[in-house]
Amino acid sequence: MCRAWNVAAADAVENTPTASDIPTLIFAGEFDPTTPPDWGRRLLAQMPNATFVQMPGLSHGASFNRCGGMMAVGFIRDPAAPADVVCANRMRGADFGLSAAPAT
Fold it and tell me: Which residues contact 95 (CB under 8 A, 6 or more apart)?
């Protein structure tokens, strides 16, 4: 793409992980192929005030639902407060065993 647009490659520093102590809320969908949950977890090493929330059963854009919205609003109101992850903990992930069960 860069060659087609005639743009120089980014400096290597662009691949350096971000380090910050700013409160940060990191969402990840359990099945996100674009930004997998492990990528979000890796951010925690450089971001001591970050909170990672994995949204069970969801993919990319995991925060775009009622539960994610409520957590985001709570975070915006008070970034230093512990994230209220109760709704995320209640979400069901995929149960592949149910799809293999015989139809009744």
Answer: none
pLDDT (tens digit per residue) in 48-57: 999 999 999 8
* 21: CB partners within 8 A, 6+ apart: 47, 48, 49
Taking alpha carbons only, the member of 64, 73, 79, 61 closest to residue 20 is 79
Give this prediction's pTM: 0.77
Q: How far apart are the first and last CA of the chain?
A: 52
Contacts of residue 99, defined as CB under 8 A and 6 or more positions apart, other chains included, come to none
**What sign results for the dihedral spanned by CA atoms 17, 19, 22, 25?**
positive
Dihedral (CA of 6, 8, 9, 15) sign? negative
